[in-house]
Structure formats: structure tokens, C-alpha cells
Design goal:
The complex is a heterodimer. Chain A is α/β, with parallel strands linked by helices. Chain A has helices spanning about 25-45, 55-70, 85-100, 110-115, 120-145, 210-220, 280-290, 310-315; strands spanning about 15-20, 20-25, 45-50, 75-80, 105, 145-150, 165-170, 195-200, 230-235, 240, 255-260, 275. In chain A, the strands form three sheets. Chain A has a six-stranded mixed beta sheet with strand order 5-4-3-6-8-7, with helices on both faces. In chain A, α1 (about 25-45) packs across α2 (about 55-70) and α6 packs antiparallel against α7 (about 280-290). In chain B, the strands form five sheets. Chain B has a seven-stranded antiparallel beta sheet, with no helix packed on it. Chain B has a six-stranded mixed beta sheet with strand order 2-3-1-4-5-6, sandwiched between helices. The chains are: A alpha/beta, B alpha/beta.
Chain lengths: ~325, ~625
């Protein structure tokens, strides 16, 4: 599998700088993210980078590689495997990490696995809590990590707009929106009490467009599911759900259809809606994004549980 | 999201988008000035709002119109309170630039949030309600914007639609604001007659203000020159971390804070003062010949020089930064807990973290008049001027010249809160030195005092130093008590010393002892003096020397006959004293503790004294050693 076959022709030579020693906005964002990643590596004892296999993770990993080159990443990647990720994501993950020489840790909630928790049997809320939030907390606890990088961006969702770059979590990994530290200049206060930890968001100031643009100019490999092709799907509540394996229980009146579509966000296949699309290259994706009028999170079933669901999940320890 | 520009072809778009610069601005205004509406409007009119978000903004307004303020509304807690509680960041792009908006809500925490949003901003937009004119508050906001070094101020005079876009109103406000802003240090100041609600003079010139020809707000944001004059700024490179992937590679990773560097340049390392040359400027893509702020790079030098995180590389051919232990700064206090002059704080400045204590609070600024008021502390949202002393020197430039090497935050080492944001001021001329050697010599001259503060000693030793004077009759058992107390304190983890016997005399005189106590107390130690302070006046004199806040008197009340009996048994030379007519001893009127030592009571008296010391918070809790 060629990881970069979706880049039509060659992207324009990425300008490092504008005419007179000025950085383009992407290079400035890049420099700021590298600064953040290095600060965390320098000031924390045991960081880890959450790796979700999605496009944002791909960009974050590249930024980390840039931060420490020619040295390897001084921390491992951690993937929370819910067992319901698209199979293509897992293939991509293993290939990508092997190719890039990245240390990858994988964790699945053993209790959830034993109890066969799935979005079909337990509903998306319980499933997400057990297989994502709880699993993440277990993995962080087990590894004793004091800092965990995440690829979240402030433009994703309203409650994210106020998220700090260093997001403080108490001993129970809970987020208190009223008790976060002010962040001035590029001076981050990383002091912790015993048991506390932080989540770090180096992509905070990137937008969805920035991420795709960066993938384009940097030729960063991403999971092929982002590009349109025929997928076997059923339509539920207006969302196209891909039948990724035999665990998907079809309703009596449902028959999977082959629809040309793609995924704007990747997660667990039963919870990730596809959009009808013809975009098969990065420029076409960007083109489509500029013309579309639906926000990225709309394809995520998880956000529709309640208006403030993301904020609630964050308080409970979700990313 | 739709592109704002006439959009024909994705490749043209990408080429163009690839060359945009980033501008950060902060939107400032009080509740009801229409700030959320302005931002919502900018996002909406530049097509950054998605349909589902728009539906949400429509659904929550009474008449089904778009509630622009709703677009930027964030956390559920603030929705309940009806106010925004923090700094939120928004993003939009036009064909010329990408923008990051720091949306700082107006309410009680205002100064703190505004300072946060302003710290990185290139432009500040202040909203003024045209109906209300220039309020004290607007002036204060402009002052903070100027303090935080924002070069450009855009004054958006809002709600002009409610005043029929009357130019007289606009110009009157402009005049008043200009008169005030003369004192502030903006590079550029512009005024815009707008209606955030209706969109006048935001993206396009409004037809309703034919008298206004300076162009809309967005055009200003797109065209205002970015002050990124890297070529004329001295090169500063705070080292973030040292990369050592193998024995043959030793690179210093960091973000260039200012200036330009080329391979072959001669550099000086602070604090060591060593010089070397740049062997390579490395990036992920490979080595480059030139690097400039704000790039993140890895530097290698030609010589083996010991360099670690927190050190700074500067170009040897340029003016050096200040290197000093003593700092003067304007600070914004950010924490609920006010400044405590006795506390040690941690300073984070560039990549350097050092302990610091506050020497002096010079003044605080009156929120209304901006006058300087004398004060000894600063509370939440207050702005003041401090002198600080650091344990290790900082390498800095005045904030006015360099927002990266001139800024710091203060951290409370107990709560770990970020308690203040500081902007460094130039040092007085006598503290500037042409070179490091001279600077070090000067540092010695101008710093005759200890660099360790009392509060630091207290923190280390877990005790407030006091002198415990034991008064009582000869034979009351004071000396035995003193040593027993010293032993107990030591076992509990505290440090004390008994002002004891010398070769020549059994005890020091009260005056000598008091001088010793003062010295040892200054060193952070507890003193115990079992001496012979038989008179009240001698005791008062000692109290005066030591300081009444550090003087504790424990009176050992043992009947005279018991004392005499003890001394006789021990054949003590002081026995004859008991047979004189003059009073042997003046008991203190109000000792801090009155105890007795009869039979086996020594331990219980020790216990009483330790309890007293704990009660008075002289002994602080000591962490269990694990």
C-alpha cells in the first residue's frame, strides 16, 4: 500500500518563508506546535502521545518527528483500541508505525472486552464510556503518564474553543473548566502535584483546513478511508454507516448498499458517518470542504447525544 | 465554509492559501458592547460558520434571526450564567491572511483574561458603545493593551445604527480617545464607525457612512503591517532541550525568540560567557543556512561547550541581553490569592525556571484614574510594579523591545497556580555592563545582600526562626531542658541550636546571647537560650535586639527551696546566691508559656514547648520521609 498515492501530481514546493524572512501561517503554526511538544518533553517525566490514527494524529506525529529530529521521539504512541475501529485504520496504523519506526502501545479495556461491550448492545453512550474513556484512563494510569498529547483542535467544537494548550486534570483525570491556568505568551506552567496530569493539545490553533493543507504540502500519509470510493453502507438517522465487519446487526428491512462516499472523521465504524463525496485526492477534499456547509463533527454520532455532550465527556476524562 | 474570495480553482486557492500570514488579534469590550456579536458577524460574513452551527444560532433566538453572539458562545456553565467565563479562540481566513481571534469576555475576571488574550496579539480591537462614549473601562482596556505591547489599536465605535450614523458622535469619541491615548505607546491607532449587528464597515465600506472613507475594519486587519522585523532584532535563542541521538551529535533544540542566525555566526552562551561558532542549523528537512524568528530549529556549534536547557545563545556581534539577578517588572496579578511578599515564587522566563522572591512592591495602578498608588501587595486583576530577586540570573531584554525575552510568569510553588504575568523593564544604567565579566563584577557590587530570602529558608527548614528564652531560678533545670528541647526538635526534623557554655564562662551574657540569637535566626535556625536573664530589663533588651516577633519567653516556675536543694545536692557554686538578700530573679509578667520541672517532668515540659511552637505555626508540618 502506498501511503501517499492520493496526492495528485506534486504539491507546490512548500515555501518555508515569505519574501523577507517571514513565515507563512502554516510554518508559524508548525513552529509553535514544535515548541509546545519540546516543552512537554523537557518538563515532564513521562509523556505519551495519544494516537487515534486519524488525520490530526498523522499531523501531530509529523510535528513530533520534526521536534526531535534527528533523534527519535522520546515518548511512545498510545492507541486506545475499542475493537470497533475500521479494519483499514488498524492496517494503516501497523504499517505506518513500522515504517516510521515509532514505538506503539495499544490498550483495550479488558473488562469491556470480557463483557462484550459494543455500540450495538449497549448504546453509543455506554460503549464510548467503557471502551474509550475508561480504557484511556486505565492506560494512562497503568503507564503512569504525567502528560498525554492529543490531536484536538479548538475549531472542532464550541466547548473546545476555550481549551488550553496545557489542559489540567486532577487525580481522577477530570477536567474542571473553571480551574484552568491562564496561558500567556508561549510560557506554559507545567507544574503538577502528585497524581495530577495534563493533556496537551499542540494542534490547538490549527483549523481543519490547515490540517489538510499541511498534509498536502508535507505529503503526510493518511488512512485511505478519507478518500471517496465505494463502501457498503446502510443509512441510519441520516448518517451513512459502513458495514465494516460481520458484527454489524442489520435491521430486517436493511440491505447494505454500495455508495461512493468518504469519511471526514475516523473513529469507531458504527459511530462514524460517511458523507457522499467524489473527492479522491487531498486537493479535492479541500475543495469539497470549502464548498460544504456542515461542520466536521456532524458525522460523529457521539456529539448528538446532547448539546453539551462533549463538555460532559471532557469533565469525565475523555479527550 | 465557503471561501470569501472569488473562488474558481482549488490549485489557485491552495497556492494562495499557502502564502498567507498569520495575524492574531484580541477583541476587547465589556458586557453589552456587542463584542460577541462583532465576532459572530466576522465569522459569519467570512463564511466560517457551518450550517449546523448556524441552525443552532437561529434556534436560540426569539425571532428566528441569526443570533450572532450565540455562534461564539461556548461552555454550558457560562450559558447558564449568561456570561462567558474565559478566553476563547476563533479562527478565520480571508484571501490575504489567516486570523486568530482571542475573545476575552468582559466581567469581573476581565483584566486577567484580557492580559492572556493580549499577550500574543498583533492588534487589539476595543469596542465602544457609541451611545455611552469613552468609559473609564475603555481607557483601562487601552492601557492594558499598550502594557502588553500590542502595536496596533483599532477602536470600533459600535451601535452607530442606533444614532443614525451621526459623524458628530463618532468624531467626539475619537477626539476624547485620542487625547487619552497620547500617553500610551501604540504604533498605530485607528477608529471605525460600525454596527456589529447590521455589519456596517466590517467587511465593506458602509453606504450609511459616506463621510467615513478610511475603509472597513476587515481591510485594516488584512493590511496592517506585521511588526516582524526579524532582521533588526538581536538574535536570542533560549535552549529548550539538548538532543543527543548518538555520540557524534549534540544539538540544541529551541525556538528562535528574535533575530536571524546564519551558519558560521559567532555566538555567546549565557550564563557561561563561552563563545563558539554555528556549525549547522538543522531541521527535519535537513540543514539550512539561515534561520530566523519564530522558527523552531536545532543548532550545533563547533566547540564542546556545556549548554543545557535554560541557557541562551546570542550572536556575539550584537548587543547582549541583560544578565541579572535583580529585576524590575510591571505585573498583572492573575490569582485569587494576593501577592505575598514573604513567599518564594517560581519565575518561568523563556525556557528558564528559577525561584524568586519579591523585594518590593512599588505601586499599583488605580483601575479608574490609572494613577500609581502606594501598596505592599497586589490582588487579583491588579496591575503594579515589582522588584524581584532571582536565585539564578535571567537573560532578558526589556519587554518593550522583545515580547519573548521580556516576558515571564510567576508560579506559586504551593498551589502551582500561574499567579502573575510580568513584563520586564530596563535596568537602571549602573546595572548595565558592556560584557559578561563586567556584568558579573557589577552584580557583586550592587548585590551586597543575601540572595536567600527568609521565606525560602522557612520553606526549606520548615520553621520560622525564633529564639526561645528560658527564664527561671538557678537550679530550675533550664539547661537540661534546653538540650532536651534541642534533641526533640532535631528528632522531629527541625533545626535548632542552644546558646550554651563557653570555656571561660558558663553562659554568655544576655546581650551577647541576643546578638548570637539574631544572627542564627537570620540563618533560619531556632535558638534556645537557657541563660541567666534574671532581670526584666535584661530580657526586654534581648527582645529588642532579637525582634519581638522572634522572641519567646518560657518561664520555668520551680519553688525556690526545690532549686536550692538541687544545687546543694550537686554542690553547685551558685548555692551562695540563694543566701543573699537581693532578689534572685524577676519572673516575667507575661511569659509565652509557664511550665514547671519537678521530678520527671522534663519530657512533658519539652512537649509543652513543642506544642506551643506548633500552635504559633513556628514549626511547619514536615513531610514524612519515605
Amino acid at each position: 500500500m502506498s501511503l501517499s498515492h492520493h496526492l495528485t501530481a506534486d504539491p507546490p514546493t512548500p515555501p518555508q518563508a515569505l519574501s523577507t524572512m517571514r513565515l507563512t501561517h502554516l510554518r508559524q503554526l508548525e513552529a509553535e506546535s514544535i515548541h509546545i511538544i519540546r516543552e512537554v518533553a523537557a518538563e515532564f517525566d513521562n509523556p505519551v502521545m495519544l494516537y487515534s490514527i486519524g488525520k490530526d494524529s498523522s499531523v501531530m506525529v509529523r510535528l513530533a518527528q520534526k521536534a526531535f529530529a534527528p533523534a527519535p521521539l522520546p515518548f511512545p504512541l498510545l492507541h486506545i483500541d475499542t475493537t470497533f475501529k475500521f479494519r483499514e485504520m488498524i492496517t494503516f496504523r501497523d504499517h505506518f508505525c513500522a515504517e516510521q519506526g515509532l514505538e506503539l502501545l495499544i490498550h483495550t479495556n479488558p473488562e469491556g472486552l470480557a463483557a462484550n461491550v459494543s455500540p450495538f448492545t449497549h448504546g453509543s453512550k455506554i460503549y464510548t464510556d467503557v471502551m474509550k474513556t475508561q480504557a484511556l484512563l486505565q492506560a494512562l494510569q497503568k503507564g503512569g503518564y504525567d502528560a498525554a498529547f492529543g490531536g484536538a483542535r479548538r475549531d472542532e467544537e464550541k466547548s473546545r474553543a476555550k481549551e488550553r494548550i496545557y489542559s489540567f486534570r486532577d487525580r481522577f483525570h477530570q477536567w474542571d473548566p473553571k480551574n484552568q491556568r491562564p496561558e500567556l505568551w508561549s510560557l506554559y506552567n507545567g507544574r503538577l502535584h502528585k497524581g495530577e496530569s495534563i493533556r496537551v493539545f499542540p494542534l490547538s490553533n490549527w483549523t481543519e483546513l490547515d490540517v489538510w493543507q499541511y498534509i498536502y504540502i508535507e505529503k503526510i500519509p493518511v488512512v485511505p478511508l478519507y478518500f471517496a470510493r465505494k463502501h457498503p453502507v446502510v443509512e441510519r438517522n441520516g448518517a451513512l454507516i459502513r458495514i465494516d465487519d460481520e458484527r454489524f446487526p442489520l435491521e430486517p428491512d436493511e440491505t447494505p448498499q454500495e455508495v461512493v462516499c468518504r469519511f471526514r472523521t475516523l473513529g469507531c465504524y458504527p459511530l462514524s458517518g460517511a458523507v457522499r463525496s467524489e473527492a479522491t485526492t487531498v486537493p479535492e477534499i479541500i475543495d469539497e470542504m470549502l464548498r460544504t456547509r456542515h461542520s466536521e463533527r456532524q458525522g460523529r454520532v457521539i456529539d448528538h447525544d446532547s448539546t453539551a455532550s462533549m463538555e460532559r465527556k471532557k469533565r469525565e476524562g475523555y479527550f | 465554509m465557503l471561501a470569501t474570495q472569488p473562488y474558481t480553482d482549488i490549485h489557485t486557492f491552495l497556492e494562495q492559501h499557502n502564502n498567507k500570514e498569520l495575524l492574531r488579534f484580541v477583541a476587547i469590550g465589556s458586557v453589552d458592547d456587542g463584542k460577541s456579536t462583532l465576532i459572530g458577524r466576522l465569522l459569519h460574513d467570512t463564511h466560517q460558520v457551518y450550517e449546523d452551527q448556524l441552525a443552532d444560532a437561529r434556534a436560540h433566538s426569539a425571532d428566528g434571526e441569526i443570533d450572532f453572539a450565540r455562534i461564539t458562545d461556548g461552555l454550558s456553565a457560562e450559558r447558564e450564567q449568561g456570561i462567558t467565563i474565559d478566553v476563547a479562540y476563533r479562527y478565520f481566513a480571508t484571501e490575504k491572511r489567516k486570523f486568530i481571534i482571542a475573545d476575552t469576555p468582559g466581567h469581573i475576571q476581565y483584566t486577567r483574561n484580557m492580559a492572556t488574550g493580549a499577550s500574543t496579539a498583533d492588534v487589539a480591537i476595543i469596542l465602544i458603545d457609541a451611545r455611552l462614549g469613552v468609559l473609564q473601562q475603555s481607557k483601562r482596556h487601552a492601557y492594558i493593551a499598550s502594557l502588553l505591547g500590542i502595536p496596533y489599536l483599532a477602536v470600533a465605535i459600535n451601535k452607530m445604527d442606533l444614532l443614525d450614523f451621526d459623524p458628530k458622535v463618532f468624531y467626539a469619541i475619537q477626539q476624547e480617545f485620542l487625547a487619552f491615548a497620547e500617553k500610551l505607546e501604540f504604533v498605530g491607532l485607528r477608529f471605525f464607525p460600525i454596527s456589529a449587528l447590521k455589519g456596517d464597515n466590517l467587511l465593506h465600506p458602509s453606504e450609511r457612512t459616506p463621510w467615513y472613507t478610511d475603509g472597513p475594519l476587515l481591510r485594516f486587519l488584512e493590511e496592517v503591517p506585521l511588526l516582524r522585523d526579524v532582521e533588526h532584532q538581536p538574535f536570542r535563542f533560549p535552549v529548550q532541550l539538548v538532543l543527543r541521538p548518538h555520540l557524534d551529535y549534540r544539538g540544541f533544540a529551541g525556538t528562535i525568540a528574535s533575530g536571524v542566525l546564519r551558519t558560521g555566526d559567532s555566538v555567546t552562551v549565557f550564563p557561561s560567557g563561552k563563545t563558539s561558532r554555528i556549525k549547522a542549523i538543522d531541521t527535519y528537512e535537513g540543514p539550512v543556512d539561515t534561520a530566523f524568528a519564530p522558527q523552531s530549529v536545532v543548532l550545533r556549534i563547533t566547540d564542546e561547550v556545556d549548554i543545557s536547557r535554560g541557557d541562551m545563545l546570542v550572536r556575539s556581534d550584537q548587543a547582549p541581553p541583560y544578565a541579572a539577578h535583580t529585576l524590575d517588572a510591571t505585573v498583572v496579578w492573575l490569582d485569587e490569592q494576593p501577592l505575598d511578599p514573604n513567599k518564594a515564587y517560581q519565575i518561568k522566563h523563556t525556557t528558564r525556571s528559577v525561584k524568586a522572591h519579591i523585594e518590593r512592591v512599588h505601586w499599583k495602578s488605580d483601575p479608574n484614574t490609572l494613577d500609581h498608588l502606594p501598596t505592599t501587595h497586589l490582588a487579583l486583576n491588579e496591575i503594579g510594579r515589582l522588584s524581584l530577586t532571582c536565585h539564578r540570573p535571567l537573560f532578558f531584554d526589556p519587554y518593550k523591545n522583545n515580547r519573548h525575552t521580556g516576558a515571564f510568569i510567576l508560579i506559586d510553588t504551593l498551589t502551582n497556580h500561574t499567579v502573575a504575568a510580568g513584563m520586564l523593564l530596563p535596568l537602571p544604567p549602573q546595572e548595565i555592563a558592556p560584557d559578561l565579566e563586567q556584568q558579573r563584577a557589577n552584580a557583586r557590587l550592587i548585590r551586597p545582600r543575601s540572595e536567600v530570602s527568609q521565606s525560602e529558608r522557612t520553606e526549606r527548614l520548615r520553621q520560622h526562626p525564633v529564639s526561645v528564652w528560658l527564664s527561671g531560678l538557678p537550679g530550675a533545670g533550664r539547661t537540661a531542658l534546653a538540650y532536651a528541647l534541642e534533641r526533640r526538635l532535631f528528632d522531629l526534623g527541625y533545626s535548632s541550636h542552644v546558646i550554651g557554655m563557653t570555656q571561660e564562662r558558663l553562659l554568655h551574657s544576655a546581650e551577647e546571647a541576643a546578638m548570637l540569637c539574631r544572627q542564627l535566626n537570620n540563618a533560619g535556625l531556632l535558638c534556645i537560650y537557657p541563660g541567666d536573664s534574671h532581670s526584666r530589663s535584661a530580657r526586654d533588651y534581648a527582645r529588642e535586639i532579637i525582634g519581638s516577633d522572634r522572641f519567646l519567653c518560657v518561664d520555668i516556675d520551680v519553688p525556690q527551696e526545690v532549686c536550692l536543694q538541687r544545687l546543694e545536692t550537686q554542690q553547685d557554686p551558685r548555692v551562695p546566691l540563694f543566701h543573699r538578700s537581693a532578689p534572685l530573679y524577676e519572673p516575667p509578667h507575661q511569659p509565652d508559656l509557664r511550665a514547671t520541672i519537678l521530678e520527671d517532668q522534663l519530657e512533658s515540659t519539652v512537649h509543652q514547648i513543642v506544642s506551643l511552637l506548633r500552635q504559633k505555626s513556628i514549626l511547619l508540618p514536615v513531610e514524612e520521609k519515605t
